[in-house]
Every structure is written in structure tokens, then in C-alpha cells.
Design brief:
The protein is α/β, with parallel strands linked by helices. It has one domain: FAD/NAD(P)-binding domain, CATH 3.50.50. The protein is 39% helix and 20% strand. The protein is built from 5 helices and 7 strands; from the N terminus they run E-H-E-H-H-H-E-E-E-E-E-H. The strands form 2 sheets. The protein has a 4-stranded parallel beta sheet with strand order 3-2-1-7. It is extended, with a radius of gyration of 21 Å. It binds flavin-adenine dinucleotide. Flavin-adenine dinucleotide binds next to helix 2, helix 3 and strand 4. Its EC number is 1.4.3.2. InterPro entries: FAD/NAD-bd_sf, FAD/NAD-binding_dom, GSHR/TRXR-like, Pyr_OxRdtase_I_AS.
């Protein structure tokens, strides 16, 4: 089988690359699997940037900027209601998670539209051109490919030093 087999990555760049391969008539497959963090957290298709990196971070920054703008607004002529403006952390996190969910879904649709197979499975090389893919039920499948694009990223881990469990963020 002519198969370009991929672990997922910063998604837009990745999508561009594999779509080009698919356009050239290559049979393309994506493997992406999120091993749970020490807190048991997992997330959807799109890698670190979309799920727990750039995107949620920027939306939180935007939340803070809006709060500051509301405070500054009266000095520049805006008349706000007398009631104190309050922030709801729950509303913010729900909105951010909904947005991320829409991106996860959009990526799945993009892959399907390009006839790119997506497997939510953990990949390990089982030979020079062979991958073992294990899904979350422990079911194994083997795939062969001519070429592999690997972008596995990195995960935070405890440093095994005094205070790491108290002060390191591992969500
Ligand atoms: C809080 C935070 C904020 C950030 N903000 C920015 C920013 O503003 N701008 C910026 O440019 N960068 C930012 N980054 C960095 C950016 O998210 C990463 O540089 C980028 O996501 C790395 O892409 P990657 O493809 O190498 O890995 P990842 O995006 O981590 O993707 C790798 C994927 O492969 C999966 N995987 C790993 N091993 C396997 C395997 N064996 N089988 C199957 N799947 C596997 C992983 O679970 C993951 O889904 C931020 C990161 C964090 C944590």
C-alpha cells in the first residue's frame, strides 16, 4: 500500500502538507493519540496548539483585554450601566471549550473531505516501513507506508525534584 502515515502536529501547517500529498494521489493516513496527563486530561484532534496551547491561551488573553477595556472605557466617553461588571470563569471556559470543539470537528471534516483516513491510535514503529497503531481499547492494527511524517510534539512531565508536584502545572 502507498501510505503516508502521520502523527499529528500543529494542525494548519500539517493539514496543508498532507492535503498536498493527497492531491498528488497519495494514500494518506493520520494517527493522533493523546496519552492522558497525570491529571487524566485528554483532548481532541488538533494537537497542543489548538487544544491546550496557543488557542486557549490567546482566548484567555482576549478575556483579560476585554476586562481592561471595560475599565478604561468610561475615561473615553463610554457610559456603562452602574451595575458592577462581573466576570464568570465558567462562562469563559465553556465558550473556549466550545470554540476548540468546533475546531476539532472542522479538522475531522477537512480530513474526511480529502479522503484522508484518521485513526485515534498511538503509533509505534514495528519495522522500517511498518507502524503498530493501538487505540484506547488496546486494539492493535498494523499499517505499512512508503514515507512517514512525524510530529509528535512534547508533553510536560514532573521533574522529580523537591516541590515539583506542588508547583509544576501538568493539567
Ligand atoms: C500554553 C501554551 C501556549 C502556546 N502558545 C503558542 C503560541 O502562541 N504560538 C506558537 O507558535 N506556539 C505556541 N505554543 C507551542 C505550540 O503549541 C507547539 O509548538 C506546537 O503545538 C507543536 O506542534 P507539534 O506538531 O510539534 O506537536 P503537538 O501540537 O503537541 O502535536 C503532537 C500530537 O501528536 C500526538 N502524539 C504524540 N505521540 C504520538 C504517537 N506515538 N502516536 C500518535 N499520536 C501521538 C500528541 O498527543 C499530539 O496530539 C504554545 C504551547 C503551550 C503549551
Amino acid at each position: 500500500m502507498t501510505l503516508l502515515c502521520v502523527f499529528l502536529c500543529s494542525f494548519n501547517l500539517f493539514l496543508f502538507r498532507i492535503q498536498e500529498a493527497a492531491k498528488l494521489g497519495k494514500k494518506v493516513m493520520v494517527l493522533d493519540f493523546v496519552v492522558p496527563t497525570p491529571m487524566g486530561t485528554t483532548w481532541g484532534l488538533g494537537g497542543t496548539c489548538v487544544n491546550v496551547g496557543c488557542i486557549p491561551k490567546k482566548l484567555m488573553h482576549q478575556t483579560a483585554l476585554l476586562g481592561q477595556a471595560l475599565r478604561d472605557a468610561p475615561k473615553f466617553g463610554w457610559k456603562l450601566d452602574d451595575k458592577a461588571v462581573k466576570h464568570s470563569w465558567d462562562t469563559m471556559t465553556e465558550a473556549i471549550q466550545n470554540y476548540i470543539g468546533s475546531l476539532n470537528w472542522g479538522y475531522r471534516v477537512s480530513l474526511r473531505e480529502k479522503s484522508i483516513t484518521y485513526e485515534n491510535a498511538y503509533g509505534e514503529f514495528a519495522g522500517p516501513h511498518k507502524i503498530k497503531a493501538t487505540n484506547n481499547k488496546g486494539i492493535e492494527a498494523f499499517y505499512t507506508a512508503e514515507k512517514f511524517l512525524i510530529a509528535t510534539g512534547e508533553r510536560p512531565r514532573y521533574l522529580d525534584i523537591p516541590g515539583d508536584k506542588e508547583y509544576c502545572i501538568t493539567r
